Predict the 3D structure of the following.
Amino acid sequence: MSEESPDPTARAATPVRSGRAWQHAIPWAITIACFGYLYMRLSGAATREGVDLFEYLTAVFRRVSWWKWLGLMVPYSMFFFLIDSLVVWRVISWFNTPLRYLDVLPIRGSSYILSILNEQVGKGAMGLYLNRRYGIPGWEVGSSMIFIMFCEFYYLATWATIGWLLRRDDLPEVFGLIPWIAGAAAVFFVAWLAFFRGPLGRNVALRERPLFKSFREAGALKYLTIILIRSPALLSAVFVYTWALRLFGVEAELGQMLGYLPVIFFGAATPGPMRTVAITLWVILFPGNEAEMTTFGFVQHNFFIFFNAAIGLLFLGRANRELFGDDATASRPG
């Protein structure tokens, strides 16, 4: 009786499933490692204080003047929303269709609700909204969303480099990678412009695809404009986070915070486990204040996300009417 030959499809599927399992496992492993690190640091600090971990953390909450903290965070979050919407308005008006700034507010605001899960999902929701509401082709509005994310990286890299130059002696050694990353990013940007705006990409089909429409039309000045529009949000965050940290009983200088925040914000904006890494980084940067920095990182990050989502709820009714109502095509360019 002859043996049946194994199914080659089944053999091929095994390494694929194995590879996907590793891809899913790595973010979980990083997240578990970060929480494990935080637990060990907090547990050790609580033991030195002679209290249990729960009492050690709740003591921080009792010391903070939460009304003063809200007095800092609420105006900052609203200011960030206005700046963020200004960026979306500027980019869409450049590359897709003229819009009023006020018409962008429900688009950006309602997308914050989905950004709780993932910032890229929120931008995808903006793309769907603009496609249905204004008839902008999906690939072209997607191009604008990618352009915004591209500029966000250079905005954070620029300010991280400035912070490193100002405070490099006070920053952990690992931050010495910042100028190298910024240098590589600058070289890449020159090549990027040469491909999409210069002779390097001439007669290359990839450059002409609708997904890259924004990059074909964007000169260096447009990239710089988006970085400048976003910068007041980061500078205000430096002041707000410095004063908020003092409410938690930890002293910090403005220049020190300017060196830290862009890197932490970059981690928090990265999909996957980097948000956990960003929260963990506060404990590393301010040793000896484990309870304060863990609480600070957790509260700051989550308040910002959920308060932005609350702003989105204010615009959700209008966004739904415009997206799914009978007037969904009323404002499409003729």
The mean pLDDT is 78. The CA atoms of residues 134 and 332 lie 4 Å apart. DSSP finds twelve helices and no strands in the chain. Residues 17-324 form one domain.
